[in-house]
Amino acid sequence: MNVLLTGAARRNFLVHYFRAALGPRGRVIACEANASAPALAEADERIVVPEMDHPDYFDVLHSICREKDVRLIIAANDLDLAGLARNAPRFRDVGAIPVVPSPEMVATSSDKWSTFLWLRKLGIATPETFPTLESARVALAHGELHFPLLIKPRWGTSSMGVELVHSQRELELAHEWGKIQLRRTVLAKMTQADPDRSFVFQQCVVGDEYGMDVINDFDGNYAATLARRKLSMRGGNTDRAVSVIEPRLECLGRSLGQHLRHIGSVDCDVIVGERDCYVLDINPRLGGGYPFSHMAGANLPAALLAWAEGAEPDPAWLRCQPGVQSSRYDGVMITGRATQAASDILYALESAPSRIHDAVQ
User: Fold this and answer.
1) What is the dihedral of CA 36, 42, 45, 46, to 10 degrees?
2) Which of 157, 248, 256, 258 is nearest to 213 (CA)?
3) N or C: the chain end with fewer CB closer than 10 Å?
4) Residues 33 and 49 sit within 8 Å (Cβ to Cβ)
5) Which domains does the chain have, with CATH numbers?
6) Nearest C-alpha neighbor of 326 from the set 257, 223, 244
7) By three-state DSSP, how is residue 254 classified?
8) Phi and psi for 83 in degrees, rounded to 5?
């Protein structure tokens, strides 16, 4: 019953949660391209793999799953979701279940313009959004859009490149500078084909911001919504939050789960205003906000493991105690020593993926 965390990086909390849920039944295997990633240091087994855009990346993951008896694949990074979704049948052939939505849903949720169109088609509230600078200019002139507004990379991650602008001049400058910035980031490949359509322009909606995990079982049936109100942000991530039980968010989560038909969890950002609940983003993975729900009593890793075994999870694992306030904090750990370089667990790029065991100690 081993679990593979891909793109583990700094998600040590996932290592801890899945290890506790597994107990003696299996191990947590973490993989990353960076041998000094903190999550690798705390996993039961760590494997250094190629970068996610390397042509052998998914072959290597497939070999790890086959040779390490992996049952669940949990993506901790947005950037390999599309490939995991495309390769899901291959992984299932060796007994591993990638906890990702369909390729079509990953593509829709990864593209903020497509997400806007999908939500509007379903009648789910979402802020008014425009796909080009010119269309935003026209909307501003006609009163369909007004300042302040948000400019966001159309294909984005971790709030990278998001700017709040209050005037036409700020809008023009933010757009120009944003295009320059994107060329220097991991998002460059996604936007190089059409840089003029690499941003969306979204109305800023006033209200309280919430994060919520919409959870479906492994048949795609809606199971639960775990919600928290964001109290502060830091570097694009929730820094402090309080767990809530909010009927409007429960209703919204149920609607999203029934339409998405995903398995596992998707992370959603929502603004609750006076009139409605507005969906800002849909991130089709176990998101960085989940720990706030875990601290309030939820145990999604245990539920995922139960579904993987064909069992029903304890209903308590899919509930939170409301009013629990939690905060992130910083820490430092040793991830290696120069004198131990020879014993590091490295992936030998020249080795065939089918012989991954020769590269893993």
Assistant:
1) -10
2) 256
3) C
4) yes
5) 2-100+332-359 (3.40.50.20), 128-203 (3.30.1490.20), 208-327 (3.30.470.20)
6) 244
7) helix
8) -65, -40
pTM: 0.89
In this structure, what token pair is assigned to residue 361? 């100690």
102: its two tokens: 């369909």
Please report the DSSP string for 64-117 in residue order: HHHHTTEEEEEE-SGGGHHHHHHTHHHHHHTT-EE----HHHHHHHHSHHHHHH
Q: Which tokens in the block code for residue 166?
A: 């209050």
Task: Render the burial of 157-178: b for 16+ CB within 10 Å, e for the rest.
Answer: beebbbbebeeeebbeebbeeb
| Structure-token match 């998002």, residue found | 187
pLDDT tens-digit profile, the chain (361 residues) = 899 999 999 899 999 999 999 999 999 999 999 999 999 999 999 999 999 999 999 999 999 999 999 999 999 988 899 999 999 999 999 999 999 999 999 999 999 999 999 999 999 999 999 999 999 999 999 999 999 999 999 987 666 778 999 999 999 999 999 888 887 776 666 656 566 789 999 999 999 999 999 999 999 999 999 999 999 988 778 999 999 999 999 999 999 999 999 999 999 999 998 889 999 999 999 988 999 999 999 999 999 999 999 999 999 999 999 999 999 998 898 888 765 444 444 544 444 444 444 434 3
